[in-house]
Inverse folding.
């Protein structure tokens, strides 16, 4: 009897084990099977990525080991900031109006400081958000986890040459991130999209949506 050949695919499975982030490599027929293999050894699966063999072949050449000769991780390369910006103070327009009519002036001043101290940045590896006037909090999304971007420009924003970019990702801690009322929003969105693709090609992976 002729044995049926089963095509196997390589997967990079991001897991947590005792609050520690780890990455495991599996060969399986599907992403679901790779996830089940990780769960079977007691790991909490966060995300599953399929490793792009075509990119790996271009990088590694013939005779490479498919489980060890992976594309260079861009996190090992120097990180470069591509864009940095903060929301426009126009986001507080109605607070300023309320300040004149109802709200005490210190509240409007606090809103102004909070907006000024909200900093977004795009690097060659991640999208970051830093907030806080006195205590600074930093949150970030790895670029390869970004699944989609959206651009919204209200009538007032168009008059002021502003716009809001929304980023949708597979990061469980920050599935959606809004970059509100920034200048040149179309250029910022395009910069994100271009570098997401560059990072994914550098890693030799494409992300699978397991939902």
């Amino acid at each position: 009897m002729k044995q049926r050949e089963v095509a196997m695919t390589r997967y990079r499975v991001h897991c947590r084990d005792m609050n520690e982030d780890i990455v495991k490599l599996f060969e399986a027929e599907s992403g679901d099977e790779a996830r089940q293999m990780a769960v079977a050894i007691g790991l909490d699966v966060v995300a599953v990525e399929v490793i792009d063999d075509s990119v790996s072949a271009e990088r590694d050449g013939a005779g490479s080991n498919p489980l060890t000769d992976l594309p260079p991780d861009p996190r090992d390369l120097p990180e470069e900031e591509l864009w940095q910006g903060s929301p426009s103070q126009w986001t507080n327009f109605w607070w300023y109006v309320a300040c004149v009519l109802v709200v005490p002036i210190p509240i409007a001043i606090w809103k102004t400081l909070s907006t000024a101290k909200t900093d977004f940045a795009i690097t060659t590896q991640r999208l970051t958000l830093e907030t806080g006037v006195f205590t600074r909090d930093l949150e970030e999304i790895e670029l390869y986890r970004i699944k989609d971007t959206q651009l919204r420009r209200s009538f007032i924003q168009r008059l002021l040459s502003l716009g809001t970019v929304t980023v949708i990702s597979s990061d469980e801690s920050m599935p959606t991130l809004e970059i509100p009322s920034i200048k040149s929003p179309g250029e910022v969105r395009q910069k994100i999209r271009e570098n997401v693709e560059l990072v994914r090609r550098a890693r030799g992976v494409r992300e699978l949506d397991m939902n």
